[in-house]
Amino acid sequence: MEDLMSLMQRITAFLRSPRGQQLVDRGRREMSKPENQARLRQIANRLQSRRR
């Protein structure tokens, strides 16, 4: 359990770093594009249909 907490702390620290913020901003920009939203919906639908 300590390893998981340590990992979570490291991820949180990274996301707050300048490089982490750059990646978060890039992800937001990419996900605001309609073609990427459609691709993500297709993947989600495919995963949902597998569960049934």
Describe the model:
The protein is 90% helix and 0% strand. It is mostly helical. Helix 1 packs across helix 2 (18-31). The longest helix is centred in the C-terminal third of the chain and has 18 residues, at 34-51. It is flat and about 35 Å long. The termini are far apart.
Strand content is under 5%
Number of helical stretches of at least 4 residues = 3
Class by SSE composition: mainly alpha
The total of beta strands comes to 0
The gross shape turns out to be flat
Instruction: Please identify the oligomeric state.
Output: single chain
Main beta sheet: strand number and arrangement? none
Proportion of residues in helical segments: over 70%
Order of helices and strands: HHH
Cα gyration radius (Å): 16 Å
Overall mean pLDDT:
94
Which regions contain 5 or more consecutive residues with pLDDT less than 50? none
Distance between the termini: 32 Å
